[in-house]
Write a structure and sequence with these properties.
Elements (H helix, E strand, L loop, with lengths): L7 H6 L19 H4 L3 H5 L5 H9 L11 E6 L11 H14 L3 E6 L5 H4 L8 H19 L3 E6 L4 H12 L3 E5 L6 E2 L2 H7 L2 H7 L3 E2 L1 H12 L5 H10 L12 H12 L14 H20 L3 H4 L2 H14 L4 H13 L5 H8 L16 H6 L4 H9 L15 H5 L25 E6 L2 E8 L7 E9 L2 H9 L7 E5 L14 H9 L7 E4 L10 E7 L16 E5 L4 E4 L3 H10 L10 H9 L13
Parallel strand pairs: 1-2, 1-3, 3-4, 9-10, 10-11, 11-12
Antiparallel strand pairs: 5-6, 7-8, 8-12, 9-13, 13-14
Helix pairs in contact: 5-14, 7-8, 8-17, 11-12, 11-23, 13-16, 13-17, 16-17, 16-18, 22-23
Amino acid sequence: MSSSSKPESSQKRNGQKTAKAGTASGKAGGRGAAEMRRFSSQVVDGYERAASRAMLHAVGFSREDFRKSQVGIASLWSMVTPCNMHLDQLARQAEAGVNASGGKALLFTAPTISDGISMGTEGMKYSLVSREVIADSIETVVGCEGFDGLVAIGGCDKNMPGCLIGMARLNRPSVFVYGGTILPGCISGILAEKRLKKERREKFEGRKLDVVSCFEAVGQYANDQIDQKELGLIEEQAIPGAGSCGGMYTANTMASAIEALGMSLPNSSAQNAVSPAKAGDARAAGAAVVELLRRGIRPSDILTREAFENAITVVIALGGSTNAVLHLLGMAHAAGVKLKLDDFTQIGKRVPVLGDLKPSGRFLMSELVAIGGQTPLMKMLLEEGLLHGGCMTVTGKTMAENLKKVRPYPKGQEIIRPFSNPIKPDSHLVVLRGNLAPEGAVAKISGKEGLRFSGKAIVFENEQDALAAILDGRVKKGHVIVIRHEGPVGGPGMREMLSPTSAVMGKGLGKDVALITDGRFSGGSHGFVVGHITPEAALGGPLAVVKNGDPITIDASRRELTLDLPTEDIQKRLAKWKAPKPNYTRGVLAKYARSVSSASLGAVTDLI
């Protein structure tokens, strides 16, 4: 213990000067007071820290506050996206929870971007990069300011893994709060009557909408299935306010995974963004982190190998996004937990898909909220022997203890299937290997597309060219759309292919074409799609030498992705391959391309 963090009486015995009353000591009250101020005491204790205290007086500290644990409240608030536009209010609730429980909260922000707005543009290359920027930002602020604990509040795809990576690196008592799901948009009868032709109203009136409805409407418009007025009406009504995209897309998937990890409070993942329940969740998180400080429970006590297995199990049961594979690998790396692609395969063999949720299913997250949220599903999985019930959580209790009094879903609900009637008996997240993906690829196979697809390649060097070909009709039945140079290095940034996959669905080709890429997919993507192909094309992976007309087979049953050519022909092509020039040579994207690892390792930027 440094002299500045010793109790006042001890400092006096050593002949040192002491700070004025209320500015020193580890007397935070209760057990382990000194440990509860392990970091903040270095910043504010002792006479030599007077300047630090002076600056904190200016932001609202009283003398008594210097005796308390300091908790950072990281809000990913911004007005660039509806997912995050309300997080400042949740941060105030968390602040109140910390302060009422004997801590001292300090609010700060970290940057966020919008996948939905940037999708299909050059800007989307910054999306996965932002995960690392968020983690770095949180680590930087908490580390610099000497916060003893952390509450992080995120509401968008990369916010959540970014927050968890930062928490794992810091390893200080922490709780994550999910901003919550958006409510569905809806075209009312009055709107339909005012804006639509009589014969078209029935198709639109009362239809529940979300952001993917817009992406798919683009393909429908290109295919003359809807007119410009109908497209405009879907656009105007799809997103009614605050909250993350409403299906089991990446945001809701990652929120569900984090709850299963034990890093958020029960049902934090399944609450509407604008609701008393979500405000209560944020306030309770503030109280919970102070209790974690009292008990000395840190992320390393929670983020175990078994916890990550729980997260994978819940993601599969809900039919979650392929992005969960990438993010859970990255989060495990930060936590020092050994997790690899093949672990998703092994767990997936015994875990069925039970959630009939969009994009491939029928229901929205807000409808799951209405029947009880995620905890009844987790109790089902626990009782079936598919969850590790002994894992510690941010409640200070084990997973099994948290679930003990949870009631089952109401009878007659159709959103979560029973084990006797699963949507799919094993995982929809299928890790493929083969001569096109020697290091692995990730497919999203709900079963509705079939389990095998063979077709002829139609090759594109970027997402925009592929989208244009889909919309103008160059992509035909039987094609395997190949989009390359969209990997972590090649893009750089590993863009999501939601625009092309949605255009495929909107054009009515969902069962007739497949799409493979070294990029990745939005949680809103569905159809016969394979992403995360490694090694990526920019690094000389076999995807780089595929030509138009080449035969390609995707076999989910055998877990294979194959370029159906003789090995000698593929090797000859690879021998002639030359690395492309990087798309960026300066700035954050260039730094990312130089430091990022393979998607099969989680696309992390601190691999040693």
